[in-house]
TrEMBL record, chain A:
Superkingdom field: Eukaryota
Family to which the UniProt record says this protein belongs: Belongs to the TRAPP small subunits family. TRAPPC4 subfamily.
Keyword set, alphabetical order: Endoplasmic reticulum, ER-Golgi transport, Golgi apparatus, Transport
Subunit structure: Part of the multisubunit transport protein particle (TRAPP) complex.
Main localization (coarse): endoplasmic reticulum
Species of the source: Citrus clementina
Record-level GO BP terms: endoplasmic reticulum to Golgi vesicle-mediated transport
Transmembrane intervals: none
Annotated localization: Endoplasmic reticulum; Golgi apparatus, cis-Golgi network; Golgi apparatus
Name this polypeptide is given: Trafficking protein particle complex subunit
Pfam families: Sybindin
Family annotation (Gene3D superfamilies): 3.30.450.70
Taxon lineage: Eukaryota, Viridiplantae, Streptophyta, Embryophyta, Tracheophyta
GO CC annotation: endoplasmic reticulum; Golgi apparatus; TRAPP complex
From TrEMBL, chain B:
Protein name: Trafficking protein particle complex subunit
Any Pfam family hit: Sybindin
Localisation per UniProt entry: Endoplasmic reticulum; Golgi apparatus, cis-Golgi network
Family: Belongs to the TRAPP small subunits family. BET5 subfamily.
Tree of life domain: Eukaryota
Organism field: Citrus sinensis
Length: 165, 169
């Protein structure tokens, strides 16, 4: 029997959902992608208490954009490229800025390792499934199914790898 | 909310792992945003004049605190973004790192903020900041000639601070 494209995607998504139930531990709380002018183009929550609404996530994203710029101005030496890691009392925030100014940041549990490589992976997925999508308009919110699917897989893989350690 | 030691300086400051000149600068602010102390040891780049620099630093800390309070993933009751918070209230942060520096931050229950900017590879400086806070209590708060809220001009505090900061790895 031949499975249609939509069926295969639905199957994949249900697999991801079952994975989610098996691994409820949230190593990563949320992921944000902001464009070069500080607008939020992607936000995904992976189980933090009190999910942020749309307005708040937009505000937080643009606030982070400005904090990133100010931190460069306060540097004691030249060549500062902004905050990479913010250590708060209850979470860590890892940020990666691409050469074009798009910022990717994850909120995760304090002391979570290997977040830089996860961010690089997500950046790679972004270039493959978002930038190469002919229907995607630059600097606009990301609505790409393939990106969502591959992103969930990357995050799950990271979680499984963490549990295995 | 934690308390920072007793009335006397802890007899042994946190043991430094290696000696070096890692600290770039330090700020002390009171709860009203007045810069009580600014020391710099090794700062090559000055983009702004001193007053603007202090304002920008205080603004950065204030905004980062409201950001972390809003982002706190373990607490569902967070209130609105940017609502002023008392010290010790809401989720705060203790450090951030860029490719050129690391900023460590501590706030006392009375709203005194101590900020230390060091080399990006330095480790956790929370204990060091507590020790510096103890120095502040001993040499500044207990000085009868010091009026609270005015800039710190204490020779003794500065020398002991310089001496201690030189040992931070």
């Amino acid at each position: 029997m031949c499975m249609s494209h939509q069926d295969s995607i639905a199957l994949k998504l249900s697999l991801i959902d079952s994975e989610k139930k098996r691994f409820p531990m949230a190593a990563i709380y949320s992921l944000y992608i902001i464009n070069k002018s500080g607008g939020l183009i992607f936000y995904k929550d992976y189980g933090s208490a009190g999910r942020m609404d749309t307005n708040d996530s937009l505000r937080v994203a643009s606030l982070w954009h400005s904090m990133h710029v100010i931190s460069q101005q306060l540097s004691p030496t030249t060549g500062c490229s902004g905050i990479e890691l913010l250590e708060a009392d209850t979470f860590d925030l890892h940020c990666f800025q691409s050469l074009t100014g798009t910022k990717f940041f994850v909120v995760c549990e304090p002391g979570t390792q290997h977040m830089e490589s996860l961010l690089k992976d997500i950046y790679e997925l972004y270039t493959d499934y978002v930038l190469k999508n002919p229907f995607y308009e630059m600097e606009m919110p990301i609505r790409c199914e393939l990106f969502d699917i591959n992103l969930s897989q990357a995050v799950q893989k990271d979680r499984v790898a963490m549990l295995g350690r | 909310m934690q308390f920072f030691g007793g009335s006397e300086i802890s007899p042994s400051p946190p043991v430094p792992t290696a000696s070096g000149n890692n600290a770039h600068m330090m700020y002390v602010f009171n709860r009203n945003g007045v810069c009580l102390l600014y020391r710099e040891w090794n700062r090559l780049l000055h983009t702004l004049n001193a007053q603007q620099d202090h304002k920008l630093m205080f603004g950065l800390l204030f905004s980062l605190k409201s950001l972390t309070a809003k982002m706190d993933p373990t607490n569902a009751e967070k209130g609105n973004l940017g609502v002023p918070q008392l010290s010790g209230q809401g989720c705060s942060f203790h450090s951030f790192r860029t490719n050129t520096y690391k900023l460590s931050f501590m706030e006392s229950p009375s709203g005194i903020k101590i900020i230390l900017v060091t080399h990006p590879r330095t480790g956790d400086l929370r204990e060091s900041l507590k020790y510096i806070y103890n120095l502040y209590v001993e040499y500044v708060v207990k000085n009868p000639l010091y009026a609270p809220g005015t800039p710190i001009r204490s020779e003794l505090f500065n020398t002991s601070l310089d001496q201690y900061v030189r040992t931070i790895a």
